[in-house]
Every structure is written in C-alpha cells, then in structure tokens.
Fold:
Amino acid sequence: MKIGLALGGGDNETPRQLVDRIAKAEADGFPSVWLANIFSLDALTVLALAGERTSKIELGTAVVPTYPRHPHAMAQQAATVNAACGGRLALGLGRSHQMVIENMFGIPYDKPIAHMREYLTIVRDLTRDGKCAVNGDAYKVNASLSVAGGSAFPLLIGALMPKMLELCGELCDGTLTWMSGPVHIEKNIVPTLAKAAARAGRPQPRVVASLPLSVTSDPAAAKEFAAKTFQIYGMLPVYRACLDAEGVAGPADLALVGDEATVRAGLDRLAAAGATDFYGAVFPTPGDDGSRKRTTEFLASL
Structure:
C-alpha cells in the first residue's frame, strides 16, 4: 500500500505556501499528495503551480465537485494541468453533498448517479480520445479537445456506496474513500468494485483510502480533538452510512491515533482489507507539540 499525504484545501495558506508543502512532500519521499477543493484555494490551479516545483510525485485532487463545473471545462482544465506537471495528475471528482450543492450553490442536486455517469463519460472521452458525443439528460455535449503535451491520466471518484462503486468499477481508475474503515473497505467497497470492473472487462480500480491520524503520546487527547474536528462527517448521510457499515459511533472511532506501532497496525489493517493507497490526513494532538512532525516523519518512513 502506497502512503501519500492529504494536504487539505489550503485553508489559511497562500498558493505559494501550499506549493512549498507539496515540494517538501516530494523531498521527503512521499509518492503522492492529494488536495481537497472546498471553500479555499482551487486545487487544480495549485497543482499546476506545483508541477513546476516537483518532478515525480503524483498530484491528486480529492476531490473536485462536479456540479459547479461543466464537464468540458473540467476536462480542459485537467488536461492543461496534466500537461503542465508532466503527466502526473490524478483527477479525483465527486458529487459533494446536497447541503453544499443545493443550499449553498443553488444548483439542483438531481439524479446524482446519472449525473456522474454522463459527467465521467464526457471527461474521460475528451481527455483520452479528444472528442465526445453524449446526448444525456443532464448534458448534451458534442465537442472536441486538444491540449498540446497532454496525455491520459487517472480518473477517480469519491465512491463509497454500491451504485457509485459499480459506476467507478465500470468507468474509473479508482475510488477515493474518506471515513471508510477496513470493515467497510473489505466487505463492501473492494468486492463491489471488483465485480463491476470484471463485468466491464477492466482492471480492478485503485482503492485510495484516507483517515485522520496522529502519532502521539496522548491518544486520549487526540481522540477528543478528532471527535470535535471531524464531527460534521458523522452528520453527512454518505459518511454516516460508512460509519454504520464499520459499526462505529463516530469519526473519532476511525481515527488512527497512538504510538508508531499502533498507527502502523491500523494501516496494516487497511492494506489487508484491500486498500492500494493511503493518503494520511494528519492532525495535531493538543498538548503534544511535536505530534504533527512526528506523524509526518513516521508516514514518510513507510
């Protein structure tokens, strides 16, 4: 299982500061970094800048919401970023959540599975074949795309539940999970992906897992902090379903906290469950000033 880093979405950071962190992650030996795209910096723009400062690290989004961007615009931007970073982009897409898309953005959150199928087909065809012809319910796109220096790149989605996982297995190179533990991954995510990919005659997609983690000498404080910091995820329907599938009460119960051996054991359980990659969402333990540095150095050592 490859160990990468989740570097957030740039909250309280300038683009230059986030690019500096990506360059350091490469220098530390991490094979991948993954940026969220929420209410701060634009992840794809930052990754284009990071491409100039790095040479080998995989540059991923986890994830860019689909509804606010037309799929042709998404394909065009992603292909441009991929060309700028020498073919190292991994484009992670997701539907986001109804409370964000409808309540905040004012965009109808209609037929999310059908929406994602059409969206993925358009992005995939444009970036791999240079053209698409989709006459769907949400999108009617008959267009071409040509980006000099561009090449095909991995296309992943945030797929956690059966219908979206089936779509992922049929059309994508991987799923990006969050708040999904080893039970849910082994019993639900991996088998569903494998069956869908086999039906489509495709290789089994990557399972790129992520959980909060902190290597610390005060696991009780870390759990308390995680319970407060990640509380919202226990309230969002799709993540609540993941937690229920895992048989845990809340996000803090999935956080990997403790000494190096304890966290390593948690990572080993994810690998045994079928995760091919892990991107660590490192958080600091209050009262343990060295926990963030200790955690990052531990992950780099793996």
Notes: The first strand starts at residue 2 and ends at 6. The CA atoms of residues 256 and 267 lie 8 Å apart. The chain has a mean pLDDT of 97.
